[in-house]
């Protein structure tokens, strides 16, 4: 969206991460073809996922601000109005509580809405409907009325958008029983998880990242298949390693991979886990990794107190205590509302050097 | 027959034309209907009470009243607990509107929802058992007094947050329109009624819903049960008057501002309520969009069973008690020969037996088992995640009592 990124290294990081990812192909699971043939941006991954799922199931529709004629505030829904019509790609007034409630009510009655929030900050105006209606009704009705809805939109920091547009909501939503919370990183995640979310019978919070929309990642033919889905609740080991486990989600996965490259040059072999699913959290994969590496660092963009890293710390205590050779390290955003000034903002969110520094501290080297 | 469509106190059709300069004449009518002559007379003739309809309405109102009074007794005996909000006095609204709906229509309500559920057809046994927190309740004891749901009967809740249910109701209407406009089912014309109070009409979601229901021309009926009080906050103190009306803060006038007819009706008279409801339902089914109905009514008891109800005057309570909808209908039925004294006594006996039976059923029903705690958090129980050994958590023995669905 913005012409420039706050931190020039960021674009470089992502580009390098993508290249690093391509180099790591051989070490990944056999799901990937050795030759990843196509480059796909996260935006196109999301767009194609929405398009295919709408073609597959008539009950799927999209509503939100600017999703139709404007082609999407971030162009994620580009072309969908023209393809599927105004009844299925519905521009709403600025009325978050109202349109979220309508989406939830229509899901109760049998449709499958994809409710877009221009950013998840605006979803705070609708959080009553998300938490009290969507998340809790299946339980309150003892299984009679389910809510097959997806709430999606950009989450977390962008660049220079100020305090009210930069908050990460992963911790808030993952706290609530009845919600599933997903955070894709790359294009494979975006396609697979969004398709899985739309097909899922429960309410799913789908936390995208605005700065990743334009980034292209290599994807295999399998990812481009119209029935490609990823399992909800399974994390992905992006990079195998033996010295330390780095756990991250969304944009921080890219930063963690970049940090791993730098650490490798210094003889530290880091394993990087892409959570993909904040709720349910794939505790088994994290625990198995820590059993191997004996050291754990979590990385998140959001604020530290009661954040995702705090939950990973609880996991480390409860399930990995005897496997740890050092206390867990946590890299999180600065505990301030996001400032506007570019240099201050850069201090607010973890950068690659912050991750490198924390890993070194956890591994016991200065 | 006096027009059921209320005009302002001084007989003028509501208009704000005099107060504001306009480029074009502003025509705001208390009721706007596009009904052609024959369909309005069809509605009027449907509104004429037949013995069957009259007895059904009487039975339904009496069931609501006796049920709620029984709830009060049970609450004070400790059989039900938490927050319980009783509907006594407002039966004419529930019966007048909901008995005119079809089984495939939807109802959405607030925490004062027992009688809406009963009128829509949820068996008294299931409602009482739910209130007792038993597993035979309509929500297996998981919802409680404020969260009555029934997929079978189209009851979409039961919401503690007032205003929250209104967009949900509009959403069900959205689905009805979607089914017709997108899925091509020409026969899809189910209607949704959202019930809420005067206090709710100051919540933002009310206005958001009015706007979108009219904008998208949805088959939805907004029913304001204006009983003049939101706990201890009088409607007169909390709601601004519409321009030009010094006497009362009318809510029905907010409908035309959003492009839909607004109707005010005597909510203590079930026949008047029914007539208004039939017109609104017909309008919605035709595809002409939503209606806002303001029913003037009164709750004979406090806001909830914990409310000492000290702020309402004795005179006000007496005035409305004299307009009790149930004796009103009884008088009409006897006068018009729609029922005999014996018929009416039979209805009283039937209702008494049904309410007694519901209490006995609830009392004797078992409480939910421990395993029920974790059920129905997710439709897809894999949502509980993966356990340490790699299996999905819900697959571990003892996780549920065994009735969780495996997808």
UniProtKB/TrEMBL annotation, chain A:
Record SMART domains: Transket_pyr (SM00861)
Protein localization: Mitochondrion
Sorted UniProt keywords: Metal-binding, Mitochondrion, Oxidoreductase, Potassium, Pyruvate, Thiamine pyrophosphate, Transit peptide
Enzyme class, UniProt record, top EC level: oxidoreductase
GO biological process annotation, one example: pyruvate decarboxylation to acetyl-CoA
UniProt GO molecular function: metal ion binding; pyruvate dehydrogenase (acetyl-transferring) activity
TM helices/strands, residue ranges: none
Keyword Repressor listed: no
UniProt EC number: 1.2.4.1
Reaction equations catalysed: N(6)-[(R)-lipoyl]-L-lysyl-[protein] + pyruvate + H(+) = N(6)-[(R)-S(8)-acetyldihydrolipoyl]-L-lysyl-[protein] + CO2
Gene Ontology cellular component annotations, sorted alphabetically: mitochondrion
Primary residence: mitochondrion
SUPFAM superfamilies: Thiamin diphosphate-binding fold (THDP-binding), TK C-terminal domain-like
Classification via InterPro entries: PDHB_mito-type, THDP-binding, Transketo_C/PFOR_II, Transketolase-like_Pyr-bd, Transketolase_C
Known role: The pyruvate dehydrogenase complex catalyzes the overall conversion of pyruvate to acetyl-CoA and CO2.
Designated name of the protein: Pyruvate dehydrogenase E1 component subunit beta
From TrEMBL, chain B:
One Gene Ontology term of the molecular function aspect: pyruvate dehydrogenase (acetyl-transferring) activity
Domain Dehydrogenase E1 component: 60-369
Enzyme class: oxidoreductase
PANTHER family documented for this protein: PYRUVATE DEHYDROGENASE E1 COMPONENT SUBUNIT ALPHA, PYRUVATE DEHYDROGENASE E1 COMPONENT, ALPHA SUBUNIT BACTERIAL AND ORGANELLAR
InterPro entries in the record: DH_E1, PDH_E1_Alpha_Subunit, Pyrv_DH_E1_asu_subgrp-y, THDP-binding
Membrane-spanning segments: none
Biological process terms in GO annotation: pyruvate decarboxylation to acetyl-CoA
This protein's UniProt keywords: Oxidoreductase, Pyruvate, Thiamine pyrophosphate
Quaternary context: Tetramer of 2 alpha and 2 beta subunits.
EC number: 1.2.4.1
Protein name per UniProt: Pyruvate dehydrogenase E1 component subunit alpha
Lineage: Eukaryota, Viridiplantae, Chlorophyta, core chlorophytes, Chlorophyceae
Keyword match Oxidoreductase: yes
Residue ranges with Polar residues bias: 1-13
Catalytic activity line of the entry: N(6)-[(R)-lipoyl]-L-lysyl-[protein] + pyruvate + H(+) = N(6)-[(R)-S(8)-acetyldihydrolipoyl]-L-lysyl-[protein] + CO2
Pfam families: E1_dh
Organism name: Tetradesmus obliquus
Stretches for region Disordered: 1-20
Task of the protein: The pyruvate dehydrogenase complex catalyzes the overall conversion of pyruvate to acetyl-CoA and CO(2). It contains multiple copies of three enzymatic components: pyruvate dehydrogenase (E1), dihydrolipoamide acetyltransferase (E2) and lipoamide dehydrogenase (E3).
Cofactor: thiamine diphosphate
């Amino acid at each position: 969206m913005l012409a420039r990124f706050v931190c020039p290294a960021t674009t470089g990081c992502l580009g390098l991460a993508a290249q690093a990812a391509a180099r790591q192909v051989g070490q990944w699971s056999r799901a990937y073809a050795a030759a990843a043939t196509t480059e796909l941006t996260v935006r196109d991954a999301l767009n194609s996922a929405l398009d295919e799922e709408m073609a597959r199931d008539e009950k799927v529709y999209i509503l939100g601000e600017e999703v139709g004629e404007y082609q999407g505030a971030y162009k994620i829904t580009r072309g969908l109005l023209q393809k599927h019509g105004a009844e299925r790609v519905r521009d709403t007034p600025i009325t978050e509580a109202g349109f979220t409630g309508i989406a939830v009510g229509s899901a109760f009655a049998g449709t499958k809405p994809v409710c877009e929030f221009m950013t998840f900050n605006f979803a705070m105006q609708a959080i009553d409907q998300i938490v009290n209606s969507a998340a809790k009704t299946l339980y309150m009705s003892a299984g009679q009325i389910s809510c097959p809805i997806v709430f999606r939109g950009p989450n977390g920091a962008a660049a220079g958008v100020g305090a009210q547009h930069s908050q990460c909501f992963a911790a808030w939503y993952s706290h609530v029983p009845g919600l599933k919370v997903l955070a894709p990183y790359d294009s494979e995640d975006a396609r697979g998880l969004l398709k899985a979310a739309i097909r899922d019978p429960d309410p799913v919070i789908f936390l995208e990242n605005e700065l990743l929309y334009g980034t292209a990642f290599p994807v295999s033919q399998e990812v481009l298949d119209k029935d490609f889905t990823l399992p909800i609740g399974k994390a992905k080991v992006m990079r195998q390693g033996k010295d330390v486990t780095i756990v991250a989600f969304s944009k921080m996965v890219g930063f963690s991979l970049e940090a791993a490259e730098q650490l490798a040059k210094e003889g530290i072999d880091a394993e990087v886990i892409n959570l993909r699913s904040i709720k349910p959290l794939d505790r088994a994969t994290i625990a198995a990794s820590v059993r191997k590496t004996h050291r754990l660092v979590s990385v998140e963009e959001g604020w530290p107190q009661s954040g995702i890293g705090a939950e990973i710390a609880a996991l480390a205590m409860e399930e990995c205590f005897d496997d740890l050779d050092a206390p867990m390290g946590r890299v999180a955003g600065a505990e301030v509302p996001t400032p506007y000034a570019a240099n201050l903002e850069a201090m607010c969110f973890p950068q690659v050097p912050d991750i490198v520094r924390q890993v070194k501290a956890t591994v016991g080297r200065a | 027959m006096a027009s059921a469509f209320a005009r302002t106190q001084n007989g003028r059709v509501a208009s704000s034309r005099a107060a504001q300069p306009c480029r074009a004449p502003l025509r705001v009518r208390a009721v706007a209907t596009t009904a052609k002559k024959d369909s309005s007379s069809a509605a009027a003739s449907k509104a004429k009470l037949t013995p069957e309809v009259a007895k059904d309405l009487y039975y339904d109102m009496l069931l609501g009243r006796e049920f709620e009074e029984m709830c009060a007794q049970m609450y004070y005996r400790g059989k039900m607990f938490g927050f319980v909000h009783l509907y006594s006095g407002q039966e004419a609204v529930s019966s007048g509107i909901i008995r005119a709906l079809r089984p495939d229509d939807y109802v959405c309500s607030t925490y004062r929802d027992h009688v809406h559920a009963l009128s829509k057809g949820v068996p008294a046994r299931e409602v009482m058992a739910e209130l007792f927190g038993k597993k035979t309740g309509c929500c297996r004891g998981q919802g409680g007094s404020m969260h009555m749901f029934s997929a079978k009967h189209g009851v979409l809740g039961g919401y503690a947050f007032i205003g929250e249910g209104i967009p949900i109701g509009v959403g069900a209407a959205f689905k009805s329109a979607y089914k017709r406009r997108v899925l091509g089912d020409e026969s899809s014309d189910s209607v949704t009624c959202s019930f809420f109070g005067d206090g709710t009409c100051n919540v933002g979601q009310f206005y958001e819903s009015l706007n979108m229901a009219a904008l998208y021309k949805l088959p939805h009926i907004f029913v304001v049960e204006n009983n003049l009080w939101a706990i201890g906050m009088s409607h007169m103190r909390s709601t601004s008057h519409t321009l030009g009306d010094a006497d009362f803060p009318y809510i029905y006038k907010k409908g035309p501002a959003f492009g839909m007819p607004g109707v005010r009706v005597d909510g203590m008279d079930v026949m008047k309520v029914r007539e208004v409801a039939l017109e609104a339902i017909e309008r919605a089914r035709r595809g002409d969009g939503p209606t806002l109905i303001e029913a003037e009514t009164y709750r004979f008891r406090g806001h909830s069973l914990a409310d000492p109800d000290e702020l309402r005057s004795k005179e006000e309570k007496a005035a409305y008690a004299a307009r009790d909808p149930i004796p009103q209908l009884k008088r009409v039925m006897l006068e018009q020969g729609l029922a005999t004294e014996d018929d009416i006594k039979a209805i009283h006996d039937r209702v008494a037996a049904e309410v007694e039976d519901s209490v006995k059923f609830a009392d004797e029903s078992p409480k939910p088992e421990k395993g029920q705690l974790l059920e129905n958090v997710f439709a897809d129980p894999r949502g509980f995640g993966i356990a340490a050994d790699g299996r999905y958590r819900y697959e571990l023995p003892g996780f549920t009592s065994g009735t969780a669905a495996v997808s």
